[in-house]
Amino acid sequence: MVLLLGAAMIMCVLLGLIVPIDANHNPDLVLTDWAISLGITLAVGVGFRLGGAWLAKKKTGSSTMRRREAMALVGIGWVVCSLIAAVPYVFCNLGLDYSSAIFEAVSGLTTTGATIFDELEGLPKTILLWRSVTQWVGGMGILAMFVVVLSGSGVSGKTLIGAESSLSNSDLSSIRQTMRQLWVLYFSLTVVGGLGLYLMGLSPFQAVNHILTTISTGGFGTQSDSIMGDHFTTLVKSWMILFMIIGGLSFPIYLALIKRQTKEIRVRYEEVWWYLGLLFIVCVTMSILAHIGSFEESIINVVFNVVSVSTSTGYASSDYELWGDMGIGVMLVLMIIGGCSGSTAGGLKVGRIVLWFRCVRTGLKQSFRPRAILPVKLNGRAVEASSIAQLLLVISLFGFFGITGSILFRILEHQHSPLGTLSLIISLLGNTGPAFGEMGPTEAWFDLSAPSKFLCSGLMILGRLEYTAVLILFSRSLWKRY
After folding, report:
1. Cβ-contact 424, 432 below 8 angstroms
2. pTM, 2 dp
3. Both ends of the chain: CA-CA distance in Å?
4. What share of the chain is helix, strand, coil (3-state, %, to 5)?
5. Burial of 209 from C-beta contacts in 10 A (0-12 / 13-18 / 19+)
């Protein structure tokens, strides 16, 4: 995994050499600093590889990765990769302490999109590209790439991908082949989207950066005012809306579309239709409110901001904090719900919300019909008890860390408002990025203290891995020999 990040660094430097930059940005490549960063990354990766080979020779038992070893790899791997992704921010002479570097790296890999930089235009060209590349890699998943490169078959491969991407086991019958197809699709969509942005008037540098962070629903941009500049025309915003929605939908549905599996699309991907329906209703409602004067906003900005928040992208085409209490409430709900399972979006996922409502409805029915057998169905199938238990676990942990995270953040940053604190924690756990109040869409987070940045980084990783893969690292039974 570390070596794959090294490959991503090489990709970033090559993009810096190839892609021409516009006049508004810093053209520095800082190649010497990148050589140091890449050297450290390769040294760590090769060290792990050689150490693993040496330990493998001493081991007498089976070399097959079992389920709990795979689960441990998910949590440890993401922490290690976050530390490695922070190395360029430390060595490229940006004046950052390591807490700020880790925050920016974690925000990139988890596709959260919150940033500690207040003046993006002055950053070296390759650093802006690195921010975008980390989001593009993290959107589909580091472990997903790991499975494609290595065998990743059987229980361990399904465990790795399931813990990172919210894909159900039913989608993973041939894990390596599926992930290879998804990565090809992901790359192809990136190329098409980037060409579209370029033909619509963005510079090559802006087009590359913005498509990398749009398809990954990440939200790292190249401008301090997000995409509020005049060069982001209505056509450009419409194109970005399309690709944010593409990133927010379940990626296996595209493979089903390619294979023309019409019946499977209609039945198996029920949450996709719920999600598109939710987007339509919210966009129409907020557009009507803007039209009748509850707040003043163009329709394209309303739709863009709604889609951006619901897909956890985090771009802002206007300051949606001015939409009033109802607008803020709606956006908070969208942050919590997020996109579809198996997408690059964050949040609790639409499928879980739909399943939770159906569990509640079934529970109410069984309160007056206790002997009735009432299966809970999703995607045309009865949901297993283990899946319902996992659903309740994730929702419970979201609530737990939402409360405890808010309390800890208020202790560390007592000057922040209750709305700013609550929306920030929801944004971190949902990997959305911008929040409200003093943590709003036009603000950078550079003034947070070091402990607060470490807290935020931990919450971002918890939300990205949906809690379990991180929390089990603190279970003693996980580390017992067997």
Report:
1. no
2. 0.92
3. 26
4. 70, 0, 30
5. buried
**Maximum Cα interatomic distance, the chain, rounded to a whole number of Å:** 73
b/e 328-344 (16+ beta carbons within 10 angstroms → b): bebbbebbbbbbbbbbb
Residues near 62 by beta carbon (within 8 Å), at least 6 away in sequence: none
Report DSSP state, residue 298: -
In the structure encoding, which two tokens stand for residue 316, read together? 């802002």
Q: CA–CA separation, 214 vs 107, rounded Å?
A: 15
Please say whether the beta carbons of 405 and 458 come within 8 A.
no
Q: Cα(46)–Cα(470) distance, rounded to whole angstroms?
A: 25
pLDDT tens-digit readout, 396-446: 999 999 999 999 999 999 888 899 899 999 999 999 988 888 887 766 688
Amino acid code (one letter) for 124:
P
Q: What is the pLDDT of residues 280-331, one digit of tens each?
A: 999 999 999 888 877 888 899 999 999 999 999 989 998 888 888 889 999 9
Rounded distance between C-alpha atoms, residue 364 and residue 25, angstroms:
58
